[in-house]
Description:
Number of domains: 3
Number of helices: 17
Structural class: alpha/beta
Mean pLDDT: 92
Number of strands: 13
CATH class of the largest domain: Alpha Beta
Shape: globular
Strand content: 5-15%
Strand order of the largest sheet: 2-8-7-6-5-3-4
CATH topology of the largest domain: Aspartate Aminotransferase, domain 2
Order of helices and strands: EHHHHEHEHEHHEHEEEHHHHEEHHEEEHH
Oligomer: single chain
Amino acid sequence: MATTLYLDTARLGKMSPRAQAANMAFTSLAGEVGCSVRFDELLYRGFSAWDACLQKRFRGLSDWRGLFGLKASLRALTGALPGLPVLLANRTAELMRLAARLLFRRCKRVLLSDLEWPAYQAILANEGRRTGGEVKQAPLREFLLNDGASPEEIVALLSAYYEDDGCDGLFLSSVTYEGIRLPVREIARSLVSAPQAPLVVVDGAQGFCHAPAELELGYCDFYLAGCHKWLRAYEPMGLGFCGRESSQGFVKSVCDEMMESGELDDPLLHFTSWIEEGTWKQFTETVSLGPLFSCAAAVEEARDTTATGRDHFADFVGIARKLEEISLGTGWLPVVAHDQLRSGVLLLRNEATRWKTARPEEMRERFQKCGVALTAYENGVIRLSAPPERWHEQDGELLRFALEMTAARCKHSPALAQVC
């Protein structure tokens, strides 16, 4: 069955309307104009550099204001101060390697929680081993999900772990992949007076365009994000933001050093850096530039919506609460943290043996047959993400139907298996 209700935004956002228009226009441009002088005009000078005829033919690219315009809009969207470095890369993992290098260039012991994305934990661990540093892990999951710990308790616990383990670096998600909004800003502030104030890196993969980044408050040194989730640009592109004026020289020097040595081997990162610095090299690797244009369109759409004064995060949290209400009595149990740590992501768990042993792919397929797209994990856990569109009563009815049908399916009902 085709997707009727898309609740998989935390994994991959459904492409926004303006990003779709930009993507289609770019595809037409590639087919009709190719990599000609007219494309160069667009790339380096922006949509306004074209004559009226080209603008009319490819109007979906109207949000492209050049590389400098895109970076300025990204700063505005996150609150980052004007002039601070913004890095663009084809692969987010490359920017995570930079983040790990930043941490272990300055730090001996880096604290993170057991809620961090496993692939990023592995990158940090590898860099720690290479440099002789250590990664210290604070056990938060049980404290948050079973004991209902408050933000104040989380701040106190992490501060205690930080000082007891002699840490000097901090890596935390603003919103974890399981949907918990950690009080990163408060944690960072609580450590300013610690024996060793931390270098702070924030994983904003699930937070960017979901919860406020508030980089203008200067609570972190580096903020890592991507375009393909809550921004809804769809085409993956990594974003790295310097969060403090005092750190910009350090971030830039380490980034330049890693690019020069080949340790940061990302075509888009090299290409955009050369453009920004005016050191364009003729003989380079061919770069995938399509994500730039869909990102620019999605950013402008997000900024226009934000300008209306609408509180997106409050809307997302409100919808997540509706999702929780809908799930009650269906056989799926909500897994929620303290109310002040909630986000637009909701976890549900099914304790039936059938689902606890099911493969995530099988679980996703069962819901897809009911018209619902979502994320599935092992051990009978699914993740629902608040959609950006307005929530309608029929959405709730469909979701409840899908939850009830899949829960009943695990009881091996042949009749229900035919439906869902």
